[in-house]
Fold each of these.
Amino acid sequence: MAFELPNLPYAYDALAPHIDAKTMKIHHEKHHAAYVSKVNTAIKGTDMDGQSIEDLCKKHSDNAAVRNNGGGHYNHTLFWSIMSPNGGGEPSGALARAMNTAFGSFDGFRTTFSNAAATRFGSGWAWLCKKADGAVEVCSTANQDNPLMPETGCGGSPLLGLDVWEHAYYLNYQNRRPDYIEAFFNVINWDEVAKKFEE
Ligand code: MN
């Protein structure tokens, strides 16, 4: 059972001007597609074939090809899903309460998450995760690692992830990663993040 590149739930230009159409198209059609193709090659003919992408991340991150490309597929699939042209604003309900407990306020979360994204050296991701006890936390991982991978020490189920690889922003923002991080807050689909929190 090979993995497939999922369609975006919106058009390539839908997140502009925060994320431009050319970046979205290359990111999805080239970068994400390459992770899908390479993880399929890595698992073909092995006992990993047929496992969910989550299980590959949780149980097989000792395999470099699975870690990099399976991580890439999982991370990008989540990333597309938690953005929307109708995004932005703040969460409500149980997610908002958990975030207030962890960070004091939405602004507290915003500062913590933005710092995690800005200070990730080189390529990687910033995450908001739900831990086993229901609390939320922010962490960051290198490359295409993610919090499902036990070695990352970044525990829990990812609710929200931000790609801070240069391929995610360089065409529009060049070296201005902080501007890209700020713009991301305009497209976060908090309804989708809340749905993941309640799962
Ligand atoms: Mn990417």
Note: Residues 2 and 41 are 9 Å apart (CA to CA).
Amino acid sequence: MIVPIKQIISKAKQKKYAVGAFNTSNLEITLAIVRAAAKMRSPVIVQTSESAIKYSNLETLFGMITNIANTVGKKVPIAIHLDHGKNMSVVKDCINIGYNSVHMDASEKDYATNVRMSRQAAQLGHRKKIWVQAELGSILGKEGMVKLETGEINMKDLMTDPYQAQDFVEKTKVDTLAVSVGTIHGSFKGVERVDHRLLKKIASLVNIPLVLHGGSGLNTGTFKKSIKNGISVINIDTNLRLAFKKALKNSIKESEDLIDPRKILNPSTEAMQKEVEKMIKIFGSQNKA
Ligand code: G3H
Ligand code: ZN
């Protein structure tokens, strides 16, 4: 059931586990996420990017997620969140329609502009008791990316500066902070990038819950250590896309005569549900509903 996100994230921070924030853009992904949360008795965050909103439209997506959360997921706490809102208008639209949380991502702007936009978003959100996430430092890549196209980049230049993070949170009054500690959006074999020393330092200076973006492809040990070192929310998108595609390929290959979209897509929905269940177990949010 939809609840204020504060209830979900504050408990995770206090009890030292992480809540998964999973991206959706359609019915099948939403069902997979909420069914997994219900089965595992876990809190969960269902999030939509700007491009998901463009694909399905805000009213449809918001209505579908809240309906599924309040029926299929009625026994577990669920929050709906805007992921990577790059401009103020989408942030305002999501606040107005009733999201529980919005991500004002002005991380590509200069520091002063990021502070100004994040503070403005926080003020708008707080009037409606909505939490606001901001981002400091750059998280490269793109959800769904499986090959690194960035060449040799100096990640150090893009990572969150701990002292700047402290100043940023004081000035903006945001509720959660997306940090750049080495992860990249997408899933890349053999890439283990979390800088745990940096993460620990940020967590020691910043009191609000920290969010790890680009969670797909990380191994269990990295997740657990990141949670131990201060992460309370972990964003996952590409892992679900990969599970969807793999199951869809098999489904079409094995039953070429199927023409009912529900039957063709059912194995993909089940595969995504399993993936969410796996993440919930690793993040430690099982039985925390
Ligand atoms: O904002 C969404 C995420 O950070 C997802 O990243 O595709 O690497 O799981 P991912
Ligand atoms: Zn992200």
Note: Residues 22 and 236 are 5 Å apart (CA to CA).
Amino acid sequence: MTLQKNKIKMALAKGRVANKTIDRLKEIGYVFPDYSKESRKLIFTDTTNTLEFFLVKSPDVGTYVEKGAADIGIVGRDVLLEHPADVYELLNLKIGQCRMCVAGFKDTQIQYNRKLTVGTKYPHIAKNYFTQIDQPVDLITINGSVELGPILGLCDCIVDIVESGSTLKENGLVVLRSILDISSRLIVNHVSLKTKRAQIDPIVEKFKELAF
Ligand code: PRP
């Protein structure tokens, strides 16, 4: 399968936001009949033949768009902050809304005049936050199931995404501080925005319906 030149190519972060995004795209007229959560296919074309999306790991969305392999991309603000890319951030799509938080056991003291060990998938965001509040930290990068960190004594607390709060609750942890509001963003390649404006503008206008 090859990507068609006349369609707008969109990189989409795999995972739970992808499923939500594809559902929301249906509401604004972009239907991808071949897509299913179970499919191993990576590239999908919509029924109007104007938009083609492919699924990539979330930190790679910015890379595909920055390099022009994708014209546009949809990715969380958390990912863009952690893995900055030279792209235009055009819209807050308000999909996948959640918070970046410091979490741990409820009696964990932040800013306690001692160095904290912090487990996270987001070392840059965590470092920036603790620098701002003058809290010395040792950061440990963990790639998933971050909530295990405090439970197993790997770290004092974590910096992670909280959406429903179920993962924290079911593991006996609580939010200690809220750091940032997160949601999905529409990003665009600098060159595509100039050279494919006629194709991109109507798509952006449609996507605006999702943002309100
Ligand atoms: C994310 C995040 C939390 C969880 C929060 O993990 O890292 O663990 O979701 O969601 P909740 O507040 O709705 O429970 P993800 O599901 O991406 O899996 P991972 O732990 O493998 O990264």
Note: The chain has eight helices and eleven strands.
Amino acid sequence: MKQQSNKQFSINSFPRVRMRRNRLSDFSRKLISENTLSVNDLIYPIFITYGSNVKEEISSMPGIYRFSLDLLHKEIEYISSLKIPVIALFPKIESELKTPDGKEALNKNNLICKAIKISKKINPDLGVITDVALDPYTDHGHDGIIHNNQIDNDLTLNILCKQAMVQAEAGCDIIAPSDMMDGRVGVIRDTLDDHGLVNIQIMSYAAKYASSFYGPFRDAVGSVQNLSNKSKKSYQMDPANSSEALREIRLDINEGADMIIIKPGMPYLDIIQKAKKEYEFPIIAYQVSGEYSMIKGAIQNGWFDEENIILETMMCFKRAGCNGIITYFAPYVADKLITNLK
Ligand code: PBG
């Protein structure tokens, strides 16, 4: 009698309920899985540089290279063979071409435009994202124009629109403003539309934090040596804030963004989840250079199992609500997804 009543009491708990039952076998774990990862979720950033026959490893990002244009086709073919749907191109330009106003960004024949054309020639179906921001082109390493000792928002907007046009005319599919100037999504959308480029998408870095996790990237595009007054805090967000991120995202959606990026990725999963809940909008996470280098460094030291740690981080992004992930691990992940299917 005593035992029976005990059982009634425990109807929704142990020992009747055993959470491990569903986890015991592989088939069952597959069945109850709440999120899936596919190659379609991946965006691969590629660094390009001047010169010829250059494939140089970025010292702070082991396994990631800068390619000169003559070697880019091989990388594009490789990425295409893995069926990664989209790439994001980032240029490292000659220091002689860097100026206070970053005007090389507007050269229709600059590195990025040439790279877009190469990619499109080799695989027109591979989506191409290009960054709109001036930091690879300015001699001070900031994303905008400096006027009276400040990054001048409105002066910068004008040049960003022109930069977006140059990239769109070269054939990119998606413009990704990463500069964090106010109002840039709206003016870029208007500029593209005024020129009939209504189908060029805008993937805005809506919530981009002033983060130390970008260190290796600045090394990769060669902006770190130049970055005068190293802080980007007057335009990128304070890591303490999350309501502000929701405001930023709302503004970019209202200005006409098609998708939004939250960056960095893993340390900011709370922002991804809040944004997804609030806006039901396509959300992309950027697993940035510092996250890559941290994980890669630990793998190289034998502290993490490579496949498990990388795939786990990908799944964390999916669980938080991401539609896509910009990650330097994209080829590795795509390759594993293909082999794990076999
Ligand atoms: C430049 C830009 C940065 C990144 C992407 N675009 C760096 C920065 O804002 O300083 C960072 C990417 C990474 O760390 O992987 N506007």
Note: The chain has 13 helices and twelve strands.
